[in-house]
Amino acid sequence: MAGEGNGSAEIVRRLLENIETVVHGKSEEIRLVLSALVSGGHVLFEDVPGTAKTVLARAIAGTIEDAVPARIQCTPDLQPTDVTGLSVFNQETRHFEFQEGPIFANIILVDEINRAMPKTQSSLLEAMAEQQVTVDGVTRRLPDPFLLIATENPIEYEGTFPLPEAQLDRFFLRTSLGYPDEEQEVRIVREQRRGHPLDELRPAVTKDEVAELRAACEDVYVDELLDAWIVRLVRETRNLPEVEVGASVRGSLALVKTARAWALLHGREYVVPEDVEELFIPVLGHRLMLAPSYLAETRNLTRSELLERIRRQCLERVPAPKPDWVADFVTS
């Protein structure tokens, strides 16, 4: 049984410590995923195989008491009803009965989402945006908490269906875990000689405590100056010649919400400009459609490098405000 918490900081500490017994050396990446959990968003991992994406999803589910995990392995023949569920005729009762699909879980790993057909990808939209699914005209709520973690492999393109912009825009964050460093990889090899650390993982927080974190996230202070600055930053992505399609209003909302969660997970009750600067690429990068001319001119650079250039350019054009209260908060 998970112990009772004594405030948001204590709940965050137990969450992080428990997950880090399984996923080593990725504290900031774990915080990014937890930011989505706390702010009610979802995460897209673009990463090569073998970087602990599945382990992280299972670790989060195992850390929350009574959380129901699910995994959806995407293939071209996966149908929408394989995700949402369907109504099946019961011969005994002579009625149709709804059988829930794997989307009716708390922590869901959608593995290799870009291998699913577009109609199956689209079946996730309502779940991600509204935490509900509609099947046969009946709308059903999904459980709480609800976190969807999708993965896609950036090095395999045969037999894949790129996510449409509408689907990408539903993800609060896109990030990657990357390979562990040599020391951490040695530790992983030694720890798994006689089994996997997931087998020993025990719950560290309750669902009520996750709900408490979500409530605390809504109370994190965002100055009006920062709200206006975030909107100007997002709008600036629409004015750059390097960007064909900039971030939408949904990007502004996601950046504010994720910044609140990010601040909370770093032990603060207020958002500072540095939070927004750190989250610019994870929150906005996948929402930007780069101009073909820009891609042609910079074809020797990776997308990450191009996004970093755009981030710096936006921050230069729209400098961060310096609210007077920052110094008071830091010294109090």
How would you describe this protein?
The protein is an alpha/beta fold and 332 residues long. The chain has two domains: 8-75 and 105-114 and 143-210, Rossmann fold (3-Layer(aba) Sandwich); 220-322, Helicase, Ruva Protein, domain 3 (Orthogonal Bundle), CATH 1.10.8.80. Helices cover 45% and strands 14% of the residues. The chain is built from 15 helices and eleven strands. It has helices at residues 8-20, 27-39, 53-63, 80-84, 118-122, 125-130, 165-168, 182-191, 207-218, 224-236, 249-265, 273-284, 292-297, 303-317, 325-331, and strands at 43-46, 69-73, 85-90, 95-100, 107-111, 132-135, 138-141, 147-152, 173-175, 243-245, 289-290. The strands form four sheets. A five-stranded parallel sheet has the order 2-5-8-1-9. Strands 3-4 form a two-stranded antiparallel sheet. β6 (132-135) and β7 form a beta hairpin. α10 crosses α11. The radius of gyration is 21 Å and the shape is globular.
